[in-house]
Amino acid sequence: MTTLFFDMDGTLIDSAVGITRCVEHAMVQMGLPVPPHEELRRWIGPALRTSFGPLLNDDAKVEQAVLHYRERFETHGWAEHEVYAGIGETIEALHAAGHRLAVVTAKNEPHARKIVDHLPFGHRFDDVIGATLDGRISHKDQLIAEALRRFELDSDACWMIGDRRMDIEGARHHGMRNIGVLWGFGGEAELREAGALHLATAPNDIPVLLAA
């Protein structure tokens, strides 16, 4: 049985609206100018503290900004997303083929679990591994390490599937096979530069690439 770790934002769901609105909310609350929408989209993928850090350059302010983000996310942002066309069918097909599935995301784990619980195919995931609230585990290599620990697996028994360089770099850190997906927020150039083993142009490419 192969275990497949799926990123969430940009891989399972298009969460641009929820994330960017929550970032905007945090910036307004902190008295910061709100960047253009295209710049805000770059916040999708990295850990929040990674993005707020260089902007605020103060640990206490970073923590306050993260709290403002979470306030809006808990009331509105978690539901502001769309499931990518075809991903549900692919998840069902992979489950039916005997693969074990999990979500590995830089979202904090309570928020990630809430979203997965409301996805029509969410019950197909055996676990949801997300960032700790204190940021102790938040980068993708750390999250993958935590997933391997929970499942008691070696990295050669798993694949990482995601849309950003962090997914690919995290997988490569552990010597793990990986698939970069092109319908998310990273794009082909970013994924190739990160060293993606395979690229999927649509969800139904994933089963084919796993067998390649």
TrEMBL record:
Source organism, top-level taxon: Bacteria
Coiled-coil stretches: none
Descriptive protein name: HAD hydrolase-like protein
Organism: Lysobacter arvi
